[in-house]
Amino acid sequence: METQTDSMENAIDVATLADEWERIELLVQGLKSSRQGQDFDRELLNRLTALSARVHAGRGANPYWNQLGAVELSELEHDVLACVAAAELHPRLGWQYMELQPGVSQPYPTPALLHELLVLDHDEIPMFHMALSVDGVLRREGLIRVEGDDPYSPVKPAPGLTAKLLSLQLPPPPPPGAIAVRQQATWTDLVLPAHQVTHLREFLMWLRHRETVEGEWGGRMGGGPVALFSGPSGTGKTLAASVIAHELGWPLYRIDLGKLVSKYIGETEKNLNQLFDAAHGRPMVLQFDEADSLFGKRGEVKDARDRYANMEVSHLLARIEEHRGPCILTTNLHEHLDTAFVRRFHVVVGFPRPDKEARVQLWKRLLPPHAPRREDVDPQFLGQAVNLTGGGIRNAALYAACLAAEEGGAIELRHVALGVWREMAKDASPRSRSDLGVLASYLPESNAVLAASTQGNGNGNGHGGGE
């Protein structure tokens, strides 16, 4: 005779996500009947009752939910997570959610639909709202995303949750507003003064020794660390961020503030919350470019827009400081930053324009190593000939290589001279041959070729080549 324990073990053995989806489909049918003023079919109700008992009993041993690790969820939190994950793991339910939410163009349930679907008792309503709150386990552990504060905003699986449940080795998508930086770099790729390199290595100490300082020594490190990289365009700020990410073995994401900052009140904060909620608990380095545009010196508050802009900056700074992960802010204009903001960074690193010796090293590294080139294309000569940043040297070297490849020959000084001329002309200011110094004699004689560099080129990027 089968004992109650044996029966329970059998129930656990057969518990799979298929039971979860069938249960949710029965809940959907029940909600449809309720909205039409009809009683739920007795046979289906019995089926739902039996299925719910089996699902709840089997969740602890279910191999899919076990992918969540040691996260402990209440039955209500588990119900919410199952309903939200179903939109991606069982697409038919996503379509049914849309039928139950007229006018909604996405397949994810809203809090209002979840409230109806789960047929909550009066005592369960506070627990339900807590489950969807920022402080609830589901959001704190990065399992769901709630895209608004109202009952009709979608509740979505957090990025990477579906792949995690299915044990798929897929990289999680970038956080909202972030762009993955694919550049790989190591310490040997940096051409910087020793002081700056030491400062960059110190930034890593905040991460490597957090557990010791906080856990064993009682320090209060809080979030971060947060670094400010300042210097002209092309001096290696993004390259240094790539080195930091490589040392940690984490991806680097550049944050496009243009996608986050909105003219509509409240939208900027909403976008920032989505970014940091998605990044919470994930190993990654966040890089915010053009920090001076947000953290500039504060002037007199003249109207509501000025007050709101200050609120946006305060909200961004608060979220950055709360985020337990490395954030790097870059700027070309350190002097434009409010000193009150600068003091709140853990590390500030200045990136100077390269001196002659540094430019020699950059030419050595950035001229394509396997490209044929004439003997007079000498990095020592080029490093002293013209004052470019690392980004400018990279662009000029690649330009020269492409010119040589087009002609089917080796890189010559005339190719390099034209590449440097094109790079220097990017700031749209008037140029003459004398600006090239000793390279001027290698420029082509054709005025038409040289004029093409200065016509219609107003991108304002004086030295091109990135951060």
Structure notes:
With 467 residues, this protein is of the alpha/beta class. It folds into 3 domains: 4-165, no CATH class; 185-350, 3-Layer(aba) Sandwich (Rossmann fold); 356-451. It has 21 helices and 8 strands. The chain has helices at residues 4-14, 17-35, 42-58, 75-89, 91-100, 111-117, 125-132, 137-140, 161-165, 194-208, 210-216, 237-248, 257-260, 267-279, 304-322, 339-342, 356-366, 379-385, 390-407, 413-424, 447-451; strands at 144-146, 155-157, 178-181, 226-230, 252-255, 285-288, 327-331, 347-350. Strands 3-5-6-7-4-8 form a 6-stranded mixed sheet, covered by helices on one side. Strands 1-2 form a two-stranded antiparallel sheet. The longest helix is centred in the first third of the chain and has 19 residues, at 17-35. It is elongated. The protein starts with a helix and ends in a 16-residue tail after the last helix.
> How many H/I helical runs?
21
Please state roughly what percent of the residues sit in beta strands, choosing from under 5%, 5-15%, 15-25%, 25-35%, 35-45% or over 45%.
Answer: 5-15%
Low-confidence stretches: 1-15, 453-467
Please estimate the helix content: 40-55%
Mean pLDDT: 83
Structural class: alpha/beta
Task: Characterize the main sheet.
Answer: 6 strands, mixed
Short description:
This protein is of the alpha/beta class and 467 residues long. The chain has helices at residues 4-14, 17-35, 42-58, 75-89, 91-100, 111-117, 125-132, 137-140, 161-165, 194-208, 210-216, 237-248, 257-260, 267-279, 304-322, 339-342, 356-366, 379-385, 390-407, 413-424, 447-451, and strands at residues 144-146, 155-157, 178-181, 226-230, 252-255, 285-288, 327-331, 347-350. The protein is built from 21 helices and eight strands.
